[in-house]
Sequence to fold (326 residues):
Amino acid sequence: VNNVFEVFTSVKDGQKYLASKSGNNHNINIFSLIDNKKILFMKYGDNATTVTMVRYFCNYKLKKEYLISADTNKKVVIWDVSNNFALLRVINTEYHDANIYSCYLFLDDFENNFLFTSCGLNTYKKNDTNYTKMYSLKDGKFIKNIIDSNENNTYFLLIWDNEIDKFNYLIELCEKQIVITNFSQNSLYAKLYQSDLKVLKYYSGYLYSIENKKNFLCCSTSNGLVITWDLINKSCINNIQISQVELYNIIQWNQKYAIIAGGSTKKIIIFDLEEFKEIGNIKTNHRSNVNCVKKISHPKYGEILLSSGNDHKIKLYFIKEDQNSE
Fold:
């Protein structure tokens, strides 16, 4: 849904990389953002397999970094970026009648590393296999299903480090609600929703800080709402309708601003988290829906934005003297 490409700075060599599905969606290409050249072609599978998402995860203390991808054959492939993008593991998730929507790699300093996967549900058949699942990264073995995770489509996964009780929580952005679980104890922490908001789908989100406490969640939704939540108090802080169309993934630009993929508006929306309003947008010139936005520091342009659309194009933008330049 949201991660059709990824950008990252490798802790191994400091290089800036872009990983994306190939033009036919069957494989993964790695580009150098500095040279604007393809440097690696990662053979994924047969031509019947379509890559649906790519995400990057890193343990900066241990300098362990991974690229993970999911496909329509219900497999998750893990690549070891630290080892020249070598294939590390293939995990068959055994979702029978649903596609993988999101994955998250939990990496701790003791190398107790876990993979979480979520899926969409069959509308007509609620299958017990369609839980959000937890796997060991070490051997790829299934560990357990996450409690209460087979009630709705789950579009996006995050991990929240609760600074108060010192537990890690899995956040599932679902249809009509957000489910937060203590995955080590497999116990429910909260289900967040407000009936008056009439949210259709929570598509994406990120955690951010207020007064140096990273206990707040900002979400984009399928019906044009941006919603922020206080995770400690389990309450909605604010919400605003900024579009009448689907808002795809949302990322943090800095402490003050969020950046949102504007869907069929074909724009990147700039959102002020302090004033809680849209303050501007960037016209992308994509021929179809803008479905993903990312940011990275570039040695020539400084902080840059990248967007992708259903037209299979990835565009790069830099901000200069308050003017949007592509």
Observations:
- The mean pLDDT is 88.
- The longest strand covers residues 51-59.
- The chain has no helices and 28 strands.
